[in-house]
Every structure is written in C-alpha cells, then in structure tokens.
C-alpha cells in the first residue's frame, strides 16, 4: 500500500499561497509514489483551489467549507484539519512554515500526540532515511533530523523547495467534507490590513532591503522603484524600522521575518548578526554600502562600495534597459 500524505494548503486573499504547492513537492520528496491528499479550508467556493492543488501534483483534494472558517482561527482550522486527518489516517502531514503554519501545526501535533519537525529548508534521502534539513543558531548552522517512528509531520520554509511545474492536464477528485466546527471561543469580527502593495515579502523572489543608511522615509522611495522594476518586494533592517523610515511589517531578521529569496539586495545595512539571521540563506546576496569594512560584505556574493543614493538610480536605469 502506498503511503498517504496530507498537504495542508493555505489560502490568503482567496488564493492558495505558493508554499502550499511547494509543500506538495516536499511531500513527493518524502514518498515519490505516495498518494498526496490536499486539504483546503475556508468559506465559500473552494473547488477551484482544490483543482489548482491537483495541477501542482496533489492526487485528490478535500475541501472543508464552513462559515467558522471564513478567517483563520487555530480552533476552527484545528477541528477542520483534524477531521480530515482522522478519516484519512496519513503517514505524513506537511504544511508551510508561515504564520498560520507556525500556529496551527504545533496544536495539531499535540492533538495527534506526535512530534513535529518545523522549518525544513530541504529534504534529503540518505542511508534509506528521509532527512529533514533545518537551520539552527539563527541560520549559522544546519541540522538534519530523522523521524524514526510514527507519523512524519513537518513544515517547510517558503521559497526553499521548488514547487512542481503546473500541469493543467492533471485531474483528481475534489470533494467537500462536512465538518461541524463548533465551540469557537475566538471570534474574528474584522480583519484590517495594512495597505501593502505588490509582492508578499515572505514569498518574494527578489527583496530590496533598506537599512539606517537609507536615512529617511523619502530615501526608501528609490528602493521601492528598484523592487518594482525587479518584480520584488521591499524589506528593512530593524535599524530602519526603529528610525521610523518604514513599517515594522517590513523588518527582516531574528525578531522580524525570515526570508530566502533568489536575490537579496541589502542597501545601507551594516550586517548585524540579528539581521543576518533573517536573510543569510538567500540564494544571491548583493550588498551596497559606503563602508568597505561593513560586515554585510562578509556574506555578500556581490558587493558594491559606494553611496546608495548614487548606485540605486543607476541600477534602476540598467534594469529598465535590460
Ligand atoms: P546600522 O548598523 O546603523 O548600519 C547602517 C549602514 O548604512 C552602515 O553600514 C553604513 O556604512 C551604511 N550607510 C550609511 N549611509 C550610506 C550611504 N549613503 N550609502 C551606502 N551605505 C550607507 N536588526 C534587524 O535588522 N533585524 C532584527 O530582527 C533584529 N533583531 C534584534 C533583536 C535583538 C534582541 C537585538 C538586540 C537587536 C536586533 N536587531 C535586529 C538590531 C541589530 O542589532 C542592528 O542594530 C540593526 O540591524 C542595524 O540596522 P542597520 O544595519 O540598518 O543600521
């Protein structure tokens, strides 16, 4: 009998987050021949999201629709996913290591009386074992973990395990499961979002991050322009957030977001260890700093020594030409 794998999809603003598709690819790395069962929770029409999971490699999808799942609450989603897991009895469960994933998966693990490997950035097969690679000590080292017994339950960091290519010719069942979602003590009355434009920082492939060297809110404008021409998002150091040049939602680092884009451009950021904790696993790091001794250059793949206010407009011009 092939292994059964439950992939918990995550919906944001009516669309599945990319990490849901990456989780399907991760599931296939664990058991290439396993049956992948996607789960999508929410309120309203979810079947098109189910179809999308199938296009990205799920074999079938179970949707759980309920008015109490309109917004994420750990109580509601826990009940919904538990109902699916109890029925499916999978050998593997996987979800994205997002804010929702970080909240939901420990609760599920506790209910299932099982362990959880969180924040895996890679999955390797060695000595007939599935090894989960995860960063430790703020990204300065990696450990490999193996599950020796029971359920394999893990989360993956967004942007590390590539999703499979979308194949719209794939088909599979999308079925709705009726679940009684009751006794919700948390009632979300309203969701007020900060106005944010463009690409989601934690899933961006390109990030242009500004530090205290950017000097003002006004100074961030060219960074937004560069991010836009590169199809990326703007991030920041805590130095820049503390100085009120930008919002704390942009903070990257130990006490901010952890990101792993393909390209990270650090602009006027010194490279404090707490900042590196959030971005040092980026695939290509470019640092722009007027101080040739700045620590950020130690981890940068490409360094530009100079004044950011001269360099950023030149970069924008060159990217526009390309
Ligand atoms: P600075 O260290 O002041 O660096 C500014 C840089 O800009 C300098 O290198 C300078 O040479 C350069 N510069 C100035 N002008 C120009 C110019 N015109 N052109 C080019 N370069 C220029 N920090 C984080 O970022 N994220 C975190 O999550 C985080 N968590 C923390 C948690 C704790 C418990 C503590 C104690 C600290 C934390 N910090 C965090 C703060 C961290 O220690 C640093 O203070 C912060 O990262 C510094 O920000 P910065 O690099 O923007 O500023």
UniProtKB/TrEMBL annotation:
Residues 5-196 form the Electron transfer flavoprotein alpha/beta-subunit N-terminal domain. Its cofactor is FAD. Keywords: Electron transport, FAD, Flavoprotein, Transport. One of its GO terms (molecular function) is flavin adenine dinucleotide binding. Belongs to the ETF alpha-subunit/FixB family. It comes from Virgibacillus chiguensis. CDD domains: ETF_alpha. SUPFAM superfamilies: Adenine nucleotide alpha hydrolases-like, DHS-like NAD/FAD-binding domain. InterPro entries: DHS-like_NAD/FAD-binding_dom, ETF_a/b_N, ETF_a/FixB, ETF_alpha_N, ETF_asu_C, ETF_asu_C_CS, Rossmann-like_a/b/a_fold. Signal peptide: none annotated. FAD binds at residues 212, 237-238, 251-255, 268-275, 289. This is Electron transfer flavoprotein alpha subunit. It holds the Pfam family ETF. Binds 1 FAD per dimer. One of its GO terms (biological process) is fatty acid beta-oxidation using acyl-CoA dehydrogenase.
């Amino acid at each position: 009998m092939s292994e059964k794998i439950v992939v918990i999809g995550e919906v944001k603003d009516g669309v599945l987050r990319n990490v849901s598709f990456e989780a399907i690819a991760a599931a296939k790395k664990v058991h290439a021949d396993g049956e992948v069962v996607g789960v999508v929770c929410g309120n309203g029409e979810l079947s098109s999201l189910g179809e999308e999971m199938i296009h990205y490699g799920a074999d079938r999808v179970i949707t759980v629709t309920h008015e109490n799942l309109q917004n994420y609450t750990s109580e509601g989603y826990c009940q919904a996913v538990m109902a699916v897991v109890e029925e499916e009895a999978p050998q593997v469960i996987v979800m994205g290591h997002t804010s929702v994933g970080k909240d939901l998966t420990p609760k599920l693990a506790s209910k299932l009386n099982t362990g959880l490997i969180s924040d895996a950035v890679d999955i390797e097969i060695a000595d007939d074992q599935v090894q989960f690679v995860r960063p430790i000590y703020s990204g300065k080292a990696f450990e490999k973990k193996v599950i020796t017994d029971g359920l394999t339950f893990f989360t993956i960091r967004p942007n590390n395990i590539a999703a499979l290519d979308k194949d719209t010719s794939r088909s599979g069942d999308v079925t709705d499961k009726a679940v009684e979602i009751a006794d919700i003590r948390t009632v979300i009355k309203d969701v007020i979002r900060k106005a944010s434009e463009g690409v989601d920082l934690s899933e961006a492939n390109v990030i242009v991050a500004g530090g205290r060297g950017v000097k003002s809110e006004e100074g961030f404008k060219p960074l937004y322009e560069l991010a836009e021409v590169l199809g990326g998002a703007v991030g920041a150091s805590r130095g820049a957030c503390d100085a009120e040049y930008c919002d704390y939602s942009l903070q990257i680092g130990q006490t901010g977001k952890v990101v792993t884009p393909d390209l990270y451009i650090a602009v006027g950021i010194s490279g404090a260890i707490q900042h590196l904790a959030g971005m040092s696993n980026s695939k290509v790091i470019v640092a722009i700093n007027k101080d040739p001794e700045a620590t950020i250059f130690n981890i940068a793949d490409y360094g530009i020594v100079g004044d950011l206010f001269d360099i950023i407009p030149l970069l924008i011009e060159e990217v526009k030409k390309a």
